[in-house]
Amino acid sequence: MGVGIQVEQLNAWFGKTQALKNINIKMAANHATAVIGPSGCGKSTFVRCLNRMHETIPEARAEGKVEIGDLNIYNGTPAVQVRRRIGMVFQKPNPFPTMSIYDNVAAGLKLNGFHDRKRLDEIVEKSLLAAALWDEVKDTAKKKSGASLSGGQQQRLCIARALAVEPQVLLMDEPCSALDPISTGKIEELIFQLKERFTIVIVTHNMQQASRVAEFTGFFLLGSLIEFDKTEKIFTNPSDKRTEDYITGRFG
Amino acid sequence: MATTTANMDLKPLSLQRRLMDSLMTGAAALAVVLVLLPLGAIFAYLVYKGIGSLNWAFLTQTPKPVGEAGGGMANAIAGSVLILGIASLIGVPMGIGAGIYLAEYGRNRLGNLIRFTADVLNGVPSIIVGIVAYGLVVLRQGHFSALAGGAALALMMIPTITRTTEEMLLLVPLGVREAAYGLGVSRWRTTLSITLRTATSGVITGIMLAFARIAGETAPLLFTAFGNQYWNWNMNQPTAALPLQIFTYAISPFDEWHRQAWAGALILIILIVVSVSAVRLAASRGMLKGAN
Fold first, then answer.
1. Hey, which of A28, A79, B180, B237 would disulfide with B190, CB 3.0 to 4.6 Å?
2. CATH code: domain of residue A185
3. What is the model's pTM?
C-alpha cells in the first residue's frame, strides 16, 4: 500500500547554489502527484530529495523534514533503507546492461541478499505483469539482455525492477521524455493501475501528461514551490499569475 | 529537412568526392596492414627459425649440459607459469582495487597523487623494477626466488591495471549506478556487483594487456628469479623462466642453444597468444560473470 508524503521546510543545495527553497507540501497516499515547471526549476532535485538520491552527487546536500508514511527520512535513517521503501524510475531507461531481463527485475532483491529462487520467480513474474511487460518477455526473460529491449520496453522493465522491491512510493523523473507516443501511452496507463498500490510522484515537462495522470500538481519555479493544488484547478484556474503564465505558454 | 535530403540524394556525387572517398578508405586499409605486418612477420620468422628445434623433448625435458644434444625448456615453461601466476595473484587484485578507489572515491588530491604515481611507475625501466624487487625481496630472503620475480612483474602490472580499471569504470554511465542506488543497494555493493560487472570486459582487456607485457620481460627477472637448470615448483627457490632461458641461450656461443632459443621464443609467443585468447573466450562466453 502507498503512504502519504509530508515535506516541511525542505532546502537543498549544490555546493553553494541553493536549488530548493523552503518547500512545504503534503502528498496524498495512493494518488499521483505531478511536478511541473521549466527546466532548472528544481523539480528533479525535489523528487531526488524524497529518496535521498540528491546527496549521491558530490557537494550536494539537503535539509528539512521529509516524512514518507511514518518514516522521517532525514532523521538518521540510513539512505539505503530509505531507498528500499521508495522506488525510482529515471528519465533515461537504465537497465543493468550485463543482466538478463529476469536478473534486472530480481536485482534489487538479490543485491540486498534475498536468494529464495522460488519466491524470486514469483516476484519477477508479478512485477513484470504489473509493469505490463510480462506478455512480451515471458519466454525470453532469462535469456535476453535487458539492453536488447526497445526503449519503451526498457522503461517498463525499469518500472518492474522498481516494483520488485515492493516500495510504498514510486518516484518517476520524466519517465516518458525519451519515449515515443505509443510507449508513453502504455506507461501512462500503467500509472493509473499502479496508483492502487503505490503513491506516485511524477516529474514531467508535458503538461497534458500531468493533467492525464495526476490528481494533484505542484508548480515549481526557481527552486520554489509556487502553487500546489488539484490538477484541474492548476490547469483551469490557477491562483498565481506565474502558474498561469507557465501553463498558458507565456514563458518557460 | 526531408526535402533537402531528397534533393541532395538526387545529385550524383562529384568525381572529386568519390576519388577522395576511395583514397581515404584505401589509406585506412593500408594502416591496418601496416599494423598487422610486424606481428605477422615476427610470428612467421619465429616459426621458420624455431619450428625445427621444437619437439616433444623440448616441451618435456630440462636443459642438457653443453655439448650434449637434445634437452628442452620444460622447466623454464613451468617456471614462467609459476612466476606469472605469482605476479597475477599479487598484481591483479591490487591493480583492480586501486582502480576502483580512483574511479569511485579518487576525485581528490590523494587520487591525483595515486594517478601520477601510477603513470610514473608505468614508465620506470623494467631493469629498475628488478633492482627494487632485489632490494625488497631477494636481500631480505637471502637468495633468488620465483617470489621475487613474481613481485617484480606484479609491480609492473599494477599501474597498467589500475589505470585501465579506472577508465573502464568511469565509462559506466551514471544512470546505471543511480539505478542501483535507487533500489537501496549500498555503495560498495553497487561498485562490485553493478559497476565493476558492467565494466568487466574492459577491465579484462586491461589485465590481458598487462599480462602480455610482463610475460616477455627478461630484465626484471635477471636478479630476482635468476634462472635454474632444473625443475622447481618452490616459490622460494631460484626458478627458470622462458625469457631468461632464451636470453642465456641466445648470447651463448653454441649453435644448438641458438636453435633452442628460437624455439623458446616461439613457445613464449604462443603461450601469450593462447592465454590471452583463452581468457577472452571465457569472458565472451560469460564464464567470467558479467562480460557481455
1. B180
2. 3.40.50.300
3. 0.84
